[in-house]
Amino acid sequence: MTHHWQLEFGATPLGTGVRFRVWAPRARTLEVRLASRDQPIPMVRGEDDVFEATVPGVGADADYQYVVDGERARPDPVSRWQPHGVHGASRVVDPGAFEWSDAAWHGLPLKELVFYELHCGTFTEQGTFEAVIARLDYLKELGVTAVELMPVGEFPGGRNWGYDGVELYAPQSTYGGPAGLKKLVDACHRTGLAVVLDVVYNHLGPEGNYLGEYGPYFTSRYRTPWGDAINYDGPGSDGVRRFFVDNALYWVTEYHIDALRLDAVHGIFDFSAQHVLEEMALAVQAVAHRAGRQIWLVAESDLNDVRVIRPRDLGGHGLDSQWSDDFHHSLHTTLTGATRGYFADFAGLRDLNKAIADGFVYDGRRSRFRERRHGSSSASRPGEQFVICQQNHDQIANGSGGARISQLMSTDGQKLGAALVVCSPNLPLLFMGQEYGELAPFYYFTSHGDAALIEAVRRGRREEFLSFDWAGDFPDPQAERTFVASKLDWSLLDRPAHASLLRFFRDLLALRRARAPLNNCRKDLTRVSSSEQGQWLVIERDDPSGQLALCVFNFRAEPNEVPLRPASHGWRLDLDSASPSYGEPRGDDSGSGQGVPDILPPDATSVRVPGRSAAVYSGSG
Description:
This protein has 16 helices and 31 strands. The chain is α/β, with parallel strands linked by helices. The protein folds into 3 domains: about 10-90, Immunoglobulin-like; about 110-205 and about 255-500, Glycosidases (TIM Barrel); about 515-620, Golgi alpha-mannosidase II (Immunoglobulin-like). The longest helix is centred in the last third of the chain and has 19 residues, at about 495-515. The chain starts with 9 loop residues before the first strand and ends with a strand.
């Protein structure tokens, strides 16, 4: 791969030495202290408050720190590696030393992305980048196309979700550091899988956060749940914006990352004429164009603001897609009846219908939870601009107290929800272990070193736990047992019930790949009908090729006669979630003994669907 972009800051090996560059307008003086040298080397302040020094006789793997104002030894804010943790010395990395084997890889079209979100520390027993590689063939066979990693920027200790990262250029040392991540990305590409990296540009973690000593990275003009906001539009913000835009470019060039998931962009406050998200999108698109690659930016946004994903020529920021919380909340309330917190805003099938057909449920209507009107219409945006799921890391740990859907509903409900996610005209996302019904919880966990911070995190999580009225004991975020309890139990695959669920997911995703109407993301060729009283929903999908798909969902516990629109053609059954091949046969009250018909004639006006199940048919117009 050729990228035509290079990181200009941090430590750059030159062959005969190393050049150190750092933007530090708040420093009076800066020095480089090398572990191999007795005396620190002064750095020269240049244009735009960039300090620089070239040190001969030094190469990759050298440990170093910057000495700020002659008194404080700090890590490099653009460190490529922090082998000693967030407070320790940085290490020089040669970005050209790794031998990539993915020259023929150019990424995947946006519409082909099927995300599999995983946390490196709990996905395997070893909890490393390289340990993930052993599961890539399994993921490929499952039918996902993109491995999405929760944040990996160096965070305190070895147990953390990653959103407390403070060294945003340094892959987590306990996961395997730079070499481990590059091996994983290279292996993914050899397997035919894209790699998505979750990055955090709305805040930094509290422990080991030394950015403020270098420059005006934070501002009190705006407040966030994590304290002062990042300074994207105030005095000195040019260098701050460059730091974060460079970070995005760094991941997609030096690490060949195929897409970035931008965490909580509603926590990015920028009233500049050009929003930093637009600046970032332009920069990434330019690199992708020059390299002949397909690289995508996916936002997490609580704003329901269509400007986030609207193209620049239509007045938007130009991001490619975003997570759809409205879809998740609508589906979750429909399947579980949840009403606490933000779920109180969603009314089951009516809102699920709108989420599938339009995207945003809250498109300017009043939110009871927010006590105001919320959102804008996304009805005109294409389906691939919405990433949808039945569960993700946030919704498990923060929305359900750590309980996965396998603990909240029957296997029938899990399959029903999965079929809705995969058959809707959007981009599906699975959370690790969902495909076989993982039983382990997924808790919030940390390994901070500051006693006051540890207690503050415990107190905050305990209050949140009580306010949501979650059942069970409070899982202490700092306790190692909380982290260990969240690890996947791969031995479950040996149990028949879990193996059957996995078979269902594989067949479901294979069907999505095989049927053009199910993978074209054409909202404009999708019709959705539903009945709150009847507890059914029908999705009809068309394709320019003439192929058609009919997806029928019964949310009742008992069999249901679901009405159909008259058609000029018949339908052939492709998948029945109630089939005995996907689990133990159910009792007669579900209607599974009868099953759904293999063929629906052209004059069919209804179909009888077993309780809590989905049926997918194909036809041609």
